[in-house]
Design goal:
Blueprint: H1 2-32, H2 39-56, H3 61-83, H4 91-113, E1 129-131, E2 134-136, H5 138-160, H6 162-172, H7 174-179, H8 184-206, H9 216-231, H10 236-256, H11 261-275
Antiparallel strand pairs: 1-2
Helix pairs in contact: 1-5, 1-6, 1-8, 1-9, 1-10, 2-3, 2-4, 2-8, 2-9, 3-8, 5-6, 6-8, 9-10, 10-11
């Protein structure tokens, strides 16, 4: 039982990171109806930026994270601005455009930081905490707390602010939002900016858990994408539930099927999606023009 609970704790911590990635996917999709295939690459950029400012510039980890989020938020704005002329005109080109941005970001990552990875030490004491016989890493609790705060702030922004309400209106009906004077382009830009910021937050947080390398964003992007689908693409609660579920599943697969954990995780994911194609919270459909 202790091993079982220990595995769940580790899975929830990693699942919180997947949930942040899934939230970025879902936020852009619910606002624009677009899957941002450069999202995983932005995760990698965020991870490298945070680790660079933390290790090389010797900045406090929290400040390094804030700077990384700011820089990647600007990258998100650039991506949206380049894609804006194609909105509601050529959806396929928009998708191809996000793939192109991903390729460019990959090339820039290797040009700036090289093809080798780096290990990031934990910014908090590494000694685990004993809770009812469970040994929990302090950094796992930090990840959970930061992810929870970020999620709450996002939900409050969407539900309690005028800009968030405007983004919700754009998500529900693009034409009606335009008719009542909502600046759709601005809402889309904010969605991209916040999505990129969430990607950087996930990348920065996962650095001390995993190994920062050019391939990091690909792995996190795929699992975050799977989490978003599992929860119901475009659903904020679904992204959270899907991320935690993928994290726990991944943790159990790694413990029982060493060497085949990725295969087992996605086989189980595939079976679940075959049973429930819309995901856990996927009944609601985002209407697009």
């Amino acid at each position: 039982m202790q091993v079982f609970l220990q595995t769940i704790v580790g899975g929830v911590s990693l699942g919180a990171v997947y949930a942040l990635v899934a939230l970025g996917f879902s936020l852009v999709y619910r606002t624009m109806g677009l899957v941002n295939f450069a999202h995983g690459n932005v995760v990698t950029v965020g991870a490298y930026l945070a680790s660079t400012f933390y290790l090389s510039s010797k900045l406090p980890f929290a400040l390094a994270m804030v700077i990384a989020i700011g820089v990647t938020g600007a990258i998100g704005l650039v991506i949206e601005r380049v894609l804006r002329p194609l909105e509601n005109r050529d959806f396929d080109l928009m998708l191809i455009g996000t793939i192109g941005f991903g390729i460019v970001l990959d090339a820039l990552i290797i040009m700036i930081w090289g093809a080798t990875g780096r290990a990031v030490p934990s910014p908090v004491p590494s000694a685990p905490i004993d809770v009812f016989g469970l040994r929990i890493r302090t950094y796992d609790l930090v990840v959970l707390a930061i992810a929870a705060v970020a999620t709450v702030l996002l939900v409050l922004f969407l539900s309690r602010t005028k800009r968030g309400a405007a983004m919700q209106a754009v998500a529900m009906d693009h034409e009606a939002a335009t008719a009542v004077g909502i600046h759709v382009g601005r809402s889309n830009a904010i969605a991209f900016m916040i999505g990129a910021g969430l990607a950087a937050l996930a990348g920065g947080l996962v650095g001390p858990l995993l190994y920062v390398s050019p391939a990091l964003g690909g792995a996190l992007g795929i699992k975050g994408f799977a989490a978003a689908i599992l929860g119901g693409f475009g659903s904020i609660p679904g992204a959270i539930v899907g991320g935690i579920a993928i994290g726990i599943l991944d943790s159990f697969a790694a413990g029982h099927f060493q060497g085949y954990s990725e295969l087992v995780t996605f086989l189980v994911f595939t079976v679940i999606i075959m049973i429930r194609p819309t995901g856990v919270f996927g009944e609601r459909t985002v209407n697009r023009a």
